[in-house]
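User: For a benchmark we're assembling, each entry needs the component sequences followed by a predicted structure for the full assembly. Here are entry 17's components. Please fill in the structure.
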Amino acid sequence: MIHAIIDYIQSYLGSDKTPGAAGNIFWMVVYILLVFVGLSVAVIAMNWLERKILAHMQVRLGPMRVGPHGLLQPIADALKLLLKEDIMPAEADKVVFWIAPFIVVLAAFTVFVVVPFGPTHAITDMNIGILFMLGVSSLSVLGIVTAGWASNSHYPLIGALRSSAQMVSYEVAMGLAVVSVILMTSLNDQGVGTLSMIGIVQAQQAQGMWFIFKFFPLGLIGFFIFAIAMVAETNRAPFDLPEAESELTAGFHTEYSGFRWSLFFLAEYSAMIAVSSIAVTLWLGGWLRPFPNLLTGPNWDLIFSLFPGATFVFLGALCFYNAARMPKHPLFRIQTIGLAGFGVVLALIGLVLFAPPVRERIGDIFWFSAKVAAFMYLYIWYRGTFPRYRFDQLMKVGWKVLLPTGLVLLILTATTAFAAPSVQEWLKRVL
Amino acid sequence: MTDPNTLSPLDLETPDKTFLDANELVINMGPQHPATHGVLRVILRLDGEKVLGLECVIGYLHRGVEKIAENRTYAMFNPYVDRMDYVAAVSNGLGYCEAVEKLLSVEAPPRAQYIRVILTELNRIASHQLWLGTHALDIGAITPLFYTFRDREEILKIFEKYCGARLTTHAFRIGGLQYEAYDGFEKDVKNFVSFVKPKIDEYEELLTTNRIWLERTKNVGVISGKDAIALGVTGPVLRASGVKWDIRKAQPYANYKNFEFEIPTGLNGDTYDRYMVRMIEMRQSLRIIEQAVVGIPEGPIMAKVPKVIKPPVGEVYHSIEAPKGELGYFVVSDGSTQPYRLRVRPPSFVNLQALDIMCRGQLVADVIAVIGTLDIVLGEVDR
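Assistant: Structure for entry 17:
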């Protein structure tokens, strides 16, 4: 019996498929747990980073009190939210009010089933992966609409109406940009494209080019359309109308507080990570390291495989540097030790990542996360820079700018993809 | 543009119950709302997101300042005026002191006049900075707020050094100044001028040519010069509609006639023009300060004013150009130590009347932008 189980567990090792595709339930569960934990940690880290980065953009310090440089602030916030009184408006539709945040969270988390962190590092690989992602992530609008409606209050209702209109209209442009990428994946010998997330990255690998540079500037335009639409899709500045603080107090979640509100928060940030991972997968080569085709050879492989460890060691060094800069006062003793300890942990992680067996396996996940992190930074940057669009202007951008651009892009991509091989052949014959 | 005199009042009492009017939504914005600048309550009648009309409900910050004046001596009432427009307390003090001085037929000595102008113009910059930060925040740009507050701090530091208070300064006395300028006052002011000039460029860099900012402010909350005059609107809001009316030039008070400065005017009377007018005004204020700070004469800071102020029987109206518009004081004296009646003409209160006409036909988001661009302070509206 035990042998059978061990055999079952071991049977997956060495497989070149994702656990889902290989049908191994044990590893599937392990991966799900890993993704869940990783995502939660990422949301917590993102919370801290957003506040700090935004604060530094705005000539202030951000959280500084809870833990060294406010490192424990997200934990304190989470505790506060969990301990808050659970308020439900008397006139609210209780069941719908209760269920709405769960729909949003469910939608935001479920999409990670197909996010490929590496060629085998995904929970499962679906042949309709990208469709699944777009479909499930757009379910969150249902949660937002029900939240706004169930609150039985004017501001949440307007917020919910805005968000449903906004998310639906930007999904169209988003879809068109995605389709142009799907067309690009079909440029192989069989002429068959793929919708699988892993397949899309492998297509970029096979064609030796990230799709953002493909058919320059068509890939770039598609990427921009998606990059704009994804900000609107996740209700972030400058498209944060559904929760426009200055107009609708807090939009659809005005009546929510405590734990329920924190679910919306969690969902918003995981949705941001989800759409960023779509963008990374489709245009930026997913888990591929930079220049996989130009800088080849074992030496370059070695140099790039040192990046994950170097990053963590650098972060650890940053912690040490800041610990050394802490005020030399007994009151700051614990904070200084804590920051130095955090630095030690980061540096140790970095050292572990330098070890050959680890660094060969961790590269994919590192590059994928690094690219997603760049998008996260962009989100914060937008928030610090842009005013908010008005609702009609938002619709104008969606329907009159992004949608026609997306349509033209699709036609041009299709034409180029269709004509490219014959033009190449013709050129070969002529020259 | 509709004639403001013929605007139909909002018929809020009789909601239509027909099916066709089901789209109409009456919502209550404020008094607890992040973007109504304090405790303004606006009742909006919406068709979807389009504003059909609105009504302002004020009085949540009413403290009876005018009535208090009747029970205080002239000198005792002086600090109360700081609590009206608390972001431009110095201007309020200047208006009140000059009104009573007019009643007493005394004039502040030249040194006091110069320092009054410097402090008032500094306060105008501080008020405009606060307006810019909150206005941009209302439109969704969160960063300018922190920049303007950082720089406003330098002005407040000068106030603090001068009189000990930062916000409600009570800087002036009837007949002159409360305090002699501290050592290094001129140097501080000069340093501030050179410090803040590039900072104003910094704010403009974030907003003036920002596409989203342009879309949010151009042709939003338009009011024609004619309507503005009809409604009694004054200050930057009036000037943005193309009316060149600034009391500093039109009816010079203090010693503004000694200084050179321009009055910026707009063309369209929209939110963007009001933004630009205020940005230019900040630079013009700096220009006045630069001229004033090098010319501060020596001499006394107080005119000969009796200890117990007993103005002769009579009445006087004196108005100044506060950062928000015409701030007027109408003081009636019955010959006793207390005003018989004191009436304040607050710019915010009068400008707020224009909110309805500026918002009709616009969207909810524009109401927020227009409230921000009117630059109201509820302490002054309600008094």
